Amino acid sequence: xxxxxxxxxxxxxxxxxxxxxxxxxxxxGPGIRTTVFFKGCSLKCKWCHNPESIFMQPQVHxxxxxxxxxxxxxxxxxxxxxxxxxxxxxxxxxxxxxCGICAKECPSTAMELLGKEWSxxxxxxxxxKDKAYFEKSRGGITVSGGEPGMQAAFVGMxxxxxxxxxxxxxxxxxxxxxxxxxxxxxxxxxxxxxxxKEIETDKHKQFTGEFNDRILxxxxxxxxxxxxxxxxxxxxxxxxxxxxxxAREENVFKIGNFIAKNLSDIVDRWELCAFNNxxxxxxxxxxxxxxxxDELLLLKESMEQFARIARESGVNxxxxxxxxxxxxxxxxxxEKKSAAN
Length: 341
Fold this sequence. Notes:
CATH topology of the largest domain: TIM Barrel
Oligomer: single chain
CATH superfamily of the largest domain: Aldolase class I
Number of helices: 13
Order of helices and strands: HEEEHEEHEEHHEHEHEHHEHEHHEH
């Protein structure tokens, strides 16, 4: 006779903690894509544009523009972690357990739960609804985060289920995960989007909280896997250009040297991603101060210069591209205003 505990284990379905499902994305691989953001990250980058994805556990945040001031959330919170103060809803992060009751009971969705459990079947059925868009645009589904490698067992099964349905899959990774975790994901990834943020190990530690030794090792391992297997069939390198941090000509040139020396035969695209400051509200909602909240966008001329440096670093110049919003120099803004008048 089987024990009830054994039966529960046998009957359990694999689940993962998902932050968001973003449809109609054009920034996470080729074509129109649906991007699934998994919660939990192995890095803590100072510029992180998705700070709500860093921690694995569920979190709640408060959206002030939606709040009615009814205090329903305060009344139902089992840990008494909420209080309405002059500046808005204050969440005691040391006592809040992310149960989500406040979000469930909030009549205006001002309280929102970040991180929900999805079963493999439910998640697959949800994202395949967009298959018609993938087929017409040569797009697909991208797994991102956070870091998908932190939930590798589930993500591997998810990618496999998509590939079995003929859907193009992309793995978006920061590279900091166990190599065995990466090996669970690569066989079912049509392509890989791999972050190379900072080439100098001490600076990488300063900017992201971790050294980059494992990241570089895993990148070389990924390259060898691509060379010896049909899938993944493509590799994109992505470098975030952060003012005062990674946005240095020396960093771009050395990353280019690394690509030219080790990856020139398999990299299809090297993307320099311009810093954006649109995420500052996310930090406010989490009760955190963002170190870059007052930082301006990079100048368009600066991004063009970084792209020139990248093309001169030894890589095939045709693989270099830069993306993102930039700003014009003040004198050019004035010139445009004068021309308009």
